[in-house]
Write a structure and sequence with these properties.
alpha/beta, elongated, five-stranded mixed beta sheet
Length: about 400
């Protein structure tokens, strides 16, 4: 899986590789290339401290991962975090994103710094067998790394102070703003990796600020009032993400309708037989549904109306039509309303019912509700037979 190429202009989008596993491998990639950062040997000390301190404690000891590390590629500017055999995804990504804050506020004793310096020098000048020495020398020659540069890095490692940790934090913070996650794991990891946009936020306790008025699902403005405050801590997104900003209109009603229609169909079907389909109309602003059904007995359509109101209290109006009516065609529904609904006996009015507070007709969450039984009697009288046309195969006729 390619997370970083040797040279790149932009980070790839968030990725997930799903495997049948109960643990995950959680990575976060970022680039220090455009932050103005100049590599210093002190970063080797910082990375050593992160691996053996911060990441070890937060991801392995507290989070339960088998291991975790952070690395930096000097030739690419790529900085990577990765954990393995990790039971978490979101918590681990949160730890990665909080690294800059941790470094910026870090307080270490001289003993802690010395311990990290000794470990970093050990990483640079680790013991090698002859074969490993040859391989390392060849890699350094290919990368153009001179002995003088290696000596400079050693000196910078030995000179590392607490201020170097603090100085590195702002560069890392800028790079984290565009960080991209990559996860190899089970189905629990899919929600994060498949997201177009991930926002890590917190609702501030006991904090309220004036908000609004904003357009609402009803197509009207809600009142201005003190409401909860959400603080966005971190964001990550795919390259060219698709982000939907909902405004009052069909976009909201479609989103509402998908779930509500399914719930109404399931709930009403348990109470009344003959239900075929449910449609939440656009003109009704999620306050009106049309039920398509063939009632097995007279009066069942009115039972369906009451079942719909009980299943979804926001509803203000319910219309019931037969299966020969196209519920997605407003003209067809209106024809049924005019020709199959007798106002004297087929309109159901429920006064003083609980309603939706954003509907202006609702006062104190109470208003009347109305249902229209636009179904023909059972059994079906012949006068309710709709005009139809015979299927014609034009190929059987000589058309000139």
């Amino acid at each position: 899986v390619r997370i970083f190429a040797p040279a790149f202009d932009a980070l790839p989008g968030a990725e997930l590789l799903s495997i049948p596993a109960q643990v995950n491998y959680v990575g976060l990639g970022l680039s220090l290339k455009d932050t103005g950062y100049r590599y210093s040997g002190s970063q080797a000390v910082i990375l050593r401290h992160l691996r053996m301190g911060y990441l070890w404690d937060r991801v392995r000891v507290q989070g339960g991962a088998y291991g975790c590390f952070a690395r930096y590629g000097r030739s690419t500017g790529a900085f990577t975090f990765a954990s393995y055999r990790d039971p978490n995804v979101e918590n681990t990504l949160r730890v990665y994103r909080e690294t800059a804050d941790y470094l910026g506020n870090l307080s270490l004793s001289e003993a802690d710094i010395t311990r990290a310096v000794v470990g970093a020098i050990g990483d640079v000048d680790t013991y090698m067998l002859p074969g490993a020495k040859g391989s390392a020398a060849f890699s350094r020659w290919m990368a153009g790394e001179s002995d003088e540069e290696r000596q400079r890095i050693r000196e910078e490692i030995l000179a590392t102070r607490l201020s170097d940790f603090h100085d590195f934090a702002p560069y890392l913070a800028r790079a984290l703003e565009k960080a991209v996650p990559c996860v190899l794991g089970g189905s629990d990891a899919e929600a994060v990796a498949d997201a177009e946009l991930v926002m890590e936020a917190e609702i501030l306790p006991r904090v309220r600020e004036p908000e609004g008025p904003f357009g609402e699902v009803s197509g009207y403005y809600a009142t201005r009032a003190d409401r909860w405050v959400v603080r966005i801590k971190h964001m990550s997104m795919r390259r060219d993400p698709i982000i939907s900003t909902l405004h009052p209109g069909k976009e909201v009603w479609n989103g509402q309708g998908l779930g509500i229609e399914a719930n109404l169909f399931r709930t009403i079907s348990r109470q009344v037989k003959g239900l075929k389909n449910v449609y939440m109309t656009h003109g009704g602003s999620h306050y009106h549904v049309v039920l398509q059904m063939d009632p097995p007995a007279n009066g069942m359509a009115k039972n369906a109306i009451m079942a719909a109101f009980a299943a979804f209290s926001d509803l203000q109006m319910v219309t019931v039509v037969n299966s020969d009516v196209n519920i997605f065609d407003a003209e067809d529904v209106e024809r049924a309303l005019c020709t199959r609904c007798d106002p004297a006996k087929d309109i159901v009015i429920i006064p003083g019912a609980f309603g939706h507070e954003l509907n202006p007709v609702v006062r104190g969450n109470v208003a009347a509700k109305m249902g229209f039984d636009c179904t023909y009697p059972v059994p079906k009288p012949p006068e309710y037979t709709r005009v139809s046309f015979m299927d014609v195969d034009p190929g059987k006729y000589d058309i000139r």
